[in-house]
Amino acid sequence: MMPDYDARIARAERLSSTYPFAAEILSYYAHICRAQQKLSKHLSAASMAAPADLRAQIDVNSLAVRGDEVLDSLVPHSPAPLAEFMEEFLAASDADRASALQAYIDRGGTDEAPEDSRERLVAAILVQPYAEMMAGKTSLLPAVTAGNLCPKCSARPVAGVLRVEGDGGKRFLLCSFCATEWEFRRILCAYCGETREPSLPVFVAEKFPHLRVEGCDTCRHCLRTVDLTKDGHAVPVVDDLAAIPLALWADEYGYSRIQANLLGT
Fold first, then answer.
1. Is 205 left (phi over 0), alpha (psi -120 to 50) or beta?
2. What are the φ and ψ backbone dihedral angles of 110, each rounded to 5 degrees?
3. CA 96, CA 49: separation in Å to the nearest integer?
4. For residue range 70-119, what is the model confidence (pLDDT) as tens digits?
5. Helices marked H in the chain — which ranges?
6. Strands 168-175 and 181-183, how do they pair?
7. Which residue pairs, CB below 8 angstroms and at least 24 apart, start in 10-15?
8. What gap in Å lies between CA 104 and CA 120, rounded to an integer?
9. Mean pLDDT, the chain, whole residue set
10. Bridge partners of residue 203, in order along the sequence
């Protein structure tokens, strides 16, 4: 199953006019999506079996074949410090680039993710299309609804999603590594498992009526959630990127995101 990059690009372009303060970020994300879309098409042409272990099935060599082309296309559109890093990455030895990609394959989306934000971003740009495609080849068991780690790759969630069900919404978590969604209880911290409602405040900003920050006063983590019951046109991975003021608010009140999104907004 191919990720729907066209929908992501269209949403990024629409939100750029809705939230001018996020226009630069969203424009850059659209460039990333176009590059990932090309990479995804090349990868889909290769024969890929349904993975028993998603991370173990990601082939660094397959990424290396097309990785240079992807990064070359992004350098002209990237902020200067990131463009410089991409050029350094492209100039590095094959072994060093493979090592950086493998580190993200092994630990991306976990509490032990690579610390260098630029290296993590470059690796994620290349690895995520592969991981999403592999995840699309496997289905979740109906009983897999409660864990706080992705049932396909064991990564932590980057965001929550509320989808329409009956007269309300059902809560899902969105994987930070392979973009899988899985069902999760409504009143439950997605990091530490806290269940006491008074310790789980929810904050909504007038500027983003379909977004909410779900905090936990026990572990001081928070999860940004996209409420599709309020805006059915939202694309969670894109709308999350646009909510820059919510990140500033969470920092001010001492909450840390469980996992940062691709561009750290």
1. beta
2. -110, 175
3. 28
4. 999 999 999 999 999 999 999 999 999 999 999 999 999 999 988 889 99
5. 5-18, 23-44, 60-74, 80-91, 94-107, 117-136, 236-242, 244-252
6. antiparallel
7. 11/233, 11/234, 11/235, 11/238, 11/239, 12/238, 12/241, 15/238, 15/239, 15/242
8. 7
9. 92
10. 213
